[in-house]
Amino acid sequence: MRGKCGLFFSSYRAEAGLFPSAFQKTCLGLFLAALCACPLVLDTYHVSILNVILIAVIGAAGLNLLTGVCGQISLGHGAFVGVGAYASALATLSGWPFVLSLLAGGLAAAATGMVFGLPSLRLKGIYLAIATLAAQLILEYLFLHATALTGGSNGLALDAPQILGFSFNTDTRIFYLILAVAVAVVLGVANIIRTRPGRAFVAIRDHHLSAEIAGVNLFAGKLSAFGVSAFLAGVAGCLWAHYTMFINPEQFGITLSISYLAMIVIGGLGSVIGAIMGAVFITLLPELLNLASGGLAGLFPDMSASLNALREGVFGLTLILFLIFEPEGLAHRWRLIKAYWKLYPFAH
Amino acid sequence: MANLEVSSLTLTFRGLAALMDVSFIVPEGQIVSLIGPNGAGKTSMLNCISGRYTPDCGQISLDGLDLLRLPAHRRTSLGLSRTFQNIALFKGLSVLDNLMVGRHHLMDTGLLASILYFGPARRKEDAHRLKVEEIIDFLGLSPYRHQIAGRLPYGVQKRVELGRALAAEPRLILLDEPMAGMNLEETEDMARYILDLNEEWAITTLLVEHDMGVVMDISDQVVVLDFGSVLAQGAPGEVQQNPEVVRAYLGSEDSHFLGR
User: How many C-beta atoms surround the C-beta of residue A66 within 10 A?
Assistant: First the structure.
């Protein structure tokens, strides 16, 4: 059971709340306040890492809705992020206001995602993975060769986003923009999961025959999962494009797709907080390894080259160890920790 | 008016006939049992009615409406629901959410409303939760309400599956071996639930079951299938006496087998 001991509800409505106890609400408020205060304390480099994490949270929350909740694997999410990035960049370059470009990026990615989600009605598991891999390769090819639109390998350069004349032209300023979008996305995904469409997604994942008996339209359900998920990927892409102010096809390769998959697997499939934890983990791990190898290189200057190589190996090793020892993801570990402290010190 | 009407239904798999010219009627408000040896086509029959299989020819109608023209997910809103022979729950959802999925076709919360949550989506969730709680009370599932369905004991999972079918507010329910693998006590409970839902909620029932004691006790009518065709149909007493039926089950005369 969720919640602390002695937490009782007197209405179904109260029980259905996302954060049922006052303690949780306080913690969340404090956490958000701390996040908002971060740019005041951290330097620009660390704020930029936070920005990258928040964008990853948006993309991972979207992919988790598709793969974790609805059970449809996608190896094309990196490319969907790219579609969002290019579409919103083109919209901004042709003079659209930022909010409209954000929507355009999301919708373009959603449309693309739904087209490449069509095979999901017939294909499952590994076969769907291959079909979405095809989406990744086709879109990458388009990014590179539709030079009239995407600028090909030269990429596209953008200005910082502006809303009502206010320019988000520093890491700190855009941090608040990305944070606002990320919070909205996370809440939206949590709301989908706890209501009718989200339950239908899980029904499709767990037993598609009984889902059909319950009146769930499998085709529409899977396509809308692809649509919403790719929409969020597109939003992430739009923010990425306007944050880095330069995009080229290399940024949206298969590695991006795989790192999103790694985030949701490490974080916990089907869990909102899992997507957040996974995004934080996968984005921070290389930074921490960088720090460690930098520190060690200071101690052993002769070994700096091999330490760099070692860094990549340690990254892979950490992922493998995680899959072995924490197969249900960080979200599961988090639940266990909460359960432990719930009864502390009287846990048996 | 007859509730469910199956007429001259034939289903083949690459030339292998699973059902041949099967006709029977499930009258409104009755419990009709479909029995027969393994491989007789009982589950295939249910799959044709619920929309999993498309028969080669023949008709299935519910209250005069042609079921075969509708895809499976739209037959639910005509008042059709079913359970499966092997447990087919949504293993990752709580018992409550499993039952809420059962009400999917009665709700109309779209994606946008669900993202916003506050307002219509929340009102509908609350209203349907009340209905689901009635079923949870009826089936005695309240201790398991928030538990993940996949981790519950077998007998409880069978009950949850019945609950999910009931949550759809069906007029006709198809039960595929609801007592399979249950002990005597659980079997009696399940028989009581079936009688109750039939009497109190006026749900017409088509039951596939191997437990002859239960079938003969609670059915208004029995339809016997063998090798895909109807061997006999009628009141339980008549069917028990039918020598053809006895032969199909035992291969020889033994009038004690089907009796109690």
Answer: 29
Nearest 5°: the CA angle A150, A247, A146 is 15
Pick B117's closest partner by Cβ from A191, A203, A228: A191
Name the closest residue on chain B to residue A216, using Cα atoms.
B73
Mean pLDDT by 10 residues, chain A (348 residues): 68 85 90 93 93 97 96 95 96 94 97 95 90 95 92 90 88 94 96 95 95 94 96 97 94 94 92 94 90 84 78 84 88 87 74
| Contact residues on chain A for B52, CB-CB shorter than 8 A | 209
Would you call B90 and A207 a contact, using CB atoms and an 8 Å cutoff?
yes
Contact B164 A214 (CB under 8 A): yes
When CB atoms are compared, the residue of B51, B82, B92 closest to A202 is: B92
Domain ranges of chain A: 48-273
ipTM of the assembly?
0.90
**B142-179 pLDDT, tens per residue?**
999 999 999 999 999 999 999 999 999 999 999 999 99
- Tell me the domain boundaries of chain B: 1-79+170-260, 90-168
Alpha carbon of B46 to those of A35, B164, B190, B203: distances in Å? 56, 17, 20, 17
Q: Chain B residues within 8 A (CB-CB) of chain A? A: 50-52, 71-74, 76-77, 81-82, 84, 88-93, 97, 100-102, 104-105, 107, 109-111, 114-117, 121-122, 124-126, 129-130, 133, 146, 164-165, 168
Residue A196 is nearest to which of B74, B114, B133, comparing CB atoms? B114
What CATH code is assigned to B1-79+170-260? Answer: 3.40.50.300
Of A1, A216, A224, the CB nearest to B73: A216
The token pair at B66 is 């042609």
What number of C-beta contacts closer than 8 Å exist between A and B? Answer: 111
Digit-coded pLDDT (tens) for B176-203: 999 988 999 999 999 999 999 999 999 9
